[in-house]
Design goal:
304 residues; alpha/beta; Arc Repressor Mutant, subunit A; D-Maltodextrin-Binding Protein, domain 2; 3 domains; 5-stranded mixed beta sheet; 24% strand; elongated
Length: 304
């Protein structure tokens, strides 16, 4: 580890801009700092610091070396953290947010297994129909549907899931002549309300082109679970995440309509995603939850 210590001394000295400042930071004498850098130079066979200048001046070779040295130190820090993590158990409060329907139908059924596997993690799970600011509202993880372009966060796909048209078996039997998306204009539909936006459903036609349908629903709600229950009751056709209605389709309480077409409310690249803050070393409790859910949702029985 002595070589790593010398790298660390050189990097910190370059950042601090002087031997004395580095010495104060490392609780070493300036003479010790100078000797360690000289030993590193001798080992490398190049001069890293220009000693003719009154102020610390890194040579061209030193500038070329510094970036690699920083990456080595970062990698070592991660390795050390991984070794420490292996001796520890994930623990502490874990705050999670998701939309209501995905939370109830997809994530919540898996929480007892997660708690059994990680008894030292206390989960606080908040559901709503509004986007959250992870940092300001102090959430560790936000479970989202649909891809996010927020480069400030880590985004991990937990489950691929298209949106599907569903209705009760009785409704599907009554309207057995549904053959094309254009037929939806004359049928009762159940729509997800997004503030004051007009409701449109998108689909991809036989030629692969994207088309839009203006939908006037007999029921609109900002909660997907309300739409699911209304569809099960025979009130109309709903466009919902496949993962949220998978168990209903298997049980026959909902029937998928127009299965030869792909549908979407906003975008066709859908799924369930875990979004969390970037950390140099990801907290164990966050890694445990994300890895557990990704694994559990890959299982054939997930979501049902």
């Amino acid at each position: 580890m002595k070589a790593l210590d010398s790298l660390r001394i050189f990097v910190i000295t370059q950042r601090k801009g002087s031997l004395s400042a580095a010495a104060r930071s490392l609780s070493l004498s300036p003479a010790t700092i100078s000797r360690r850098i000289s030993a590193l130079e001798e080992e490398l066979g190049v001069q890293l610091v220009d000693r003719t200048s009154r102020n610390l001046k890194v040579t061209e070779a030193g500038q070329a070396f510094i970036g690699h040295a920083e990456r080595v130190l970062e990698t070592m820090a991660e390795a050390e953290q991984a070794a420490r993590d292996a001796r520890q158990r994930p623990e502490g409060r874990l705050r999670i947010h998701s939309r209501t329907q995905i939370g109830i139908r997809v994530i919540a059924p898996l929480l007892p297994r997660f708690a059994q596997q990680y008894p030292d993690i206390q989960v606080e799970y908040e559901l709503s129909e509004h986007p959250v600011n992870i940092v300001e509202q102090d959430f560790d993880i936000d479970i989202r549907t649909g891809e996010s372009n927020d480069s400030g966060f880590v985004i991990k796909r937990l489950l691929s899931s298209d949106e599907v048209l569903v209705a009760s078996a009785a409704f599907a039997q009554r309207h057995a002549r549904i053959q094309h998306p254009n037929d939806l204009a004359r049928l009762p539909c159940l729509t997800y309300r997004r503030e004051h936006e007009a409701t449109t459903w998108k689909y991809i036609d036989a030629e692969g082109a994207q088309q839009e349908l203006a939908i006037k629903g007999v029921l609109s709600s900002n909660n997907g679970e309300v739409l699911r229950l209304a569809a099960m009751g025979g009130m109309g056709i709903a466009l919902l995440s496949e993962s949220a209605v998978r168990a209903d389709i298997r049980a026959g309480t909902l029937v998928r309509l127009l299965a030869d077409y792909r549908f979407a409310v906003r975008q066709f690249s859908n799924g369930v995603f875990a979004v969390f803050r970037q950390h140099r070393t990801l907290p164990l409790k966050v890694r445990a939850f994300v890895d557990f859910m990704a694994e559990a949702l890959r299982e054939p029985a997930a979501g049902g």
